[in-house]
Each structure stands twice: as C-alpha cells, then as structure tokens.
C-alpha cells in the first residue's frame, strides 16, 4: 500500500508541475525553427512586445540654423562614402586563402577592384562598388562563370568609384 501511495504522489506531483508547451513555428531563411516554450513565458514575451514606453526625456528646443549648402553638379560632393553594394565572391577562415583568391581575381578582372575584409569569423573577398543591387547584377552574371557563389551584399562604397 505504501508503494502505491508513493507512486501516486510521484505521478501527481510530476503532472502538477509539468509545463504547458506551445509549438511555435518561425520561418528563418527558407527553413523552419520549432520551439517549445511554456505558455507563461510566451505571455511575458508578448506583454514586453506590446508594451509602449510612455516616458519621454525632455528635449531642448532645436536651434533653427540653416546649413550652408553649396550647389554642385557632383553627386559625390561632400560624401566620399555612401551606402551601396559590393559583390562577395569568396569567404574563408584562412586569410592566406582569401588573399590568394583576391590576387587571382585581379589577374582575371583587372578592370574591377577587389579587397579582403574580415567579418568575424571569416575573411571575405569583395569586389566592385555599386549604388544598387540592380547595377551589380550585370557584373554578378559575368562573375558567375568563375565564381559561382557570387552575390551582392550591402556595404559602404566609395562614391567616386560606384556604378
């Protein structure tokens, strides 16, 4: 009888403290991520997402100074770098390999600039300077013959060199 009571208490306590689980599916980069979370945690997360901050810090009245604007026909005047795109043709954890690919690229395509940049934990070989993805697409198609993994990424580009 004692064993029955102990077994009953064990099963009852396990079910009393069990978590409610909710399956949540989120699409991330053409894949799925399944999460099982407690409904109470889900409620706290939703409350934090829905919360609106009511405190606003006191602000000073802006001084109405008009900036001096020099009109020029040059769109790059005063902005050496702008937000644009570069084409990534290679990445590796080894800097020597990335430098070798950059040197090879400079021999094949002397009309395009190439550089090796470090984005932790990889070294990437980036080429060209483009204002938009569509302006980079022509060169991507050209580079696909030698570098089939070429694609454009957002990057600060030199305004004078960009296409």
Write the layout of secondary structure elements.
Blueprint: H1 2-16, E1 21-28, E2 31-38, H2 39-50, E3 81-92, H3 95-108, E4 114-119, E5 122-130, H4 133-143, E6 151-158
Brief sketch in words of this structure:
It is built from 4 helices and 6 strands, in the order H-E-E-H-E-H-E-E-H-E.
Overall description:
The termini are far apart. This protein has helices spanning 2-16, 39-50, 95-108, 133-143, and strands at residues 21-28, 31-38, 81-92, 114-119, 122-130, 151-158. It has 163 residues and is of the alpha+beta class. β4 and β5 form a beta hairpin. The protein has four helices and six strands; from the N terminus they run αββαβαββαβ. The strands form two sheets. Strands 4-5-3-6 form a four-stranded antiparallel sheet. The chain has a two-stranded antiparallel ribbon with strand order 1-2. The mean pLDDT is 75.
């Amino acid at each position: 009888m004692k064993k029955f009571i102990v077994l009953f208490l064990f099963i009852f306590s396990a079910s009393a403290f069990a978590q409610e689980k909710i399956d949540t599916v989120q699409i991330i980069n053409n894949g799925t991520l399944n999460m099982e979370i407690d409904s109470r945690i889900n409620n706290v997360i939703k409350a934090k997402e829905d919360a609106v901050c009511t405190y606003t810090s006191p602000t000073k009245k802006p001084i109405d100074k008009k900036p001096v604007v020099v009109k020029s026909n040059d769109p790059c005047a005063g902005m050496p770098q702008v937000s644009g795109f570069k084409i990534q043709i290679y990445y590796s954890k080894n800097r020597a390999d990335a430098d070798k690919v950059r040197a090879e690229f400079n021999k094949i395509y002397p009309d395009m600039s190439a550089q090796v940049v470090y984005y932790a934990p990889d070294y990437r070989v980036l080429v060209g300077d483009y204002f938009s993805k569509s302006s980079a697409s022509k060169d991507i198609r050209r580079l696909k013959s030698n570098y089939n993994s070429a694609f454009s990424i957002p990057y600060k580009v030199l305004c004078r060199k960009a296409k």
